[in-house]
Amino acid sequence: MHGQRIIEIALSTTRCLLAGASVLVATLCTGPAFADDDGRPVKVMIINMFGGTPFPFSEASAFTANLGLTESIPVRGLSPDYPNILCNSDDVCQMVAGEGHANVAASTMALILSNKFDLRRTYFLIAGIAGIDPHQGTTGSAAWARYLIDYGISWEIDAREIPGTVADPTTPAWPYGYLAIFPTDTTTQPWNSLPTIPTPYHSEMYQLNEALLQKILALTGKVDLTVNDNATASAYRGHYAEAKAKAPPSVIQCDTMAGDTWFHGIQLGERAAAWTALWTGGKGTYCTTQQEDNATYMALTRGAISGLVDLNRVAVLRTASNFDRPYPGESAWHSLCGCGPEGGSGGFVPAISNLWIASAPFIKDVVAHWDKWKHAVPK
């Protein structure tokens, strides 16, 4: 009897272990559901790059008070500087992602994978300040993007060593030392040649949803941005020769260039314009320069692959805090640092202020007519 009892206990223990193992295997194999039906619904998620200071000294401050974002939700993996998502009772929320490619990618992935939010019908508004090409706009202007171009994924040769210089007198002479990684044309115009597509990076160029872009332009295109202008900005832009640089700020549509290196000057600005034209087949128009948007969008694409977000619901707004090059007679260094006798551009405060007033009609319309927006972009 004693031996039989030992066998029974052993069999019972084995059955318990097998049952526990089967539960564990099932959990590991199935994993969490792609979308959390219990997550907080969000109508609009605003993504800014820096906060921490009161209005009008940070991107986040342009939205926090105006939208009454008083509900604070901690999310693991966000920037230690901005560890909480802020929301209001209208289901409009805000994430401050941090600056640069690495920060925004990490923060956006943390948001998407947190399971605290249901983002499947959320409209994402990436909203920040930028430099602007004086051929396309002026300080304080608000530019809605169709194309996102990455400035940094490229080969670079120091401009003092490119073909056509003393270091390399071969022809044809290159206009600058940037070109695509493994361009298909290595002899005639390597700097003006695309690589074989798709590339391993998958993030050199994105095109946003045209229906959403046109709806936003219809809602915001006539917003008066001059209410936030100032005498310093007006006087500074008057030094430029370009008509669009001299004009008062307005809502415009043109495209944005992302890169961790904060470039500046006529030559690099011209490269940005050519790079945009190359990657968009001549359809895009470079106008703003910033450090984040392609990385943010890449993180959103990962979420879309998992069924967590809808890429047709992404909009990008950049307001111009400075020009991307000097005016005639000003050095590139003084234009960049604002530390010369010419002074600064005066564009920072108007750019921060105009983030809100240029996007408010869109945000308010989504909330007011959510019964339409939740299904798709309204006609």
Automatic annotation (TrEMBL):
Superkingdom per UniProt: Bacteria
A Pfam family per the record: NUP
GO biological process entries: transmembrane transport
InterPro entries: Pur_nuclsid_perm (IPR009486)
Protein name: Purine nucleoside permease
Keywords: Signal
Signal sequence, start to end: 1-35
Positions of transmembrane segments: none
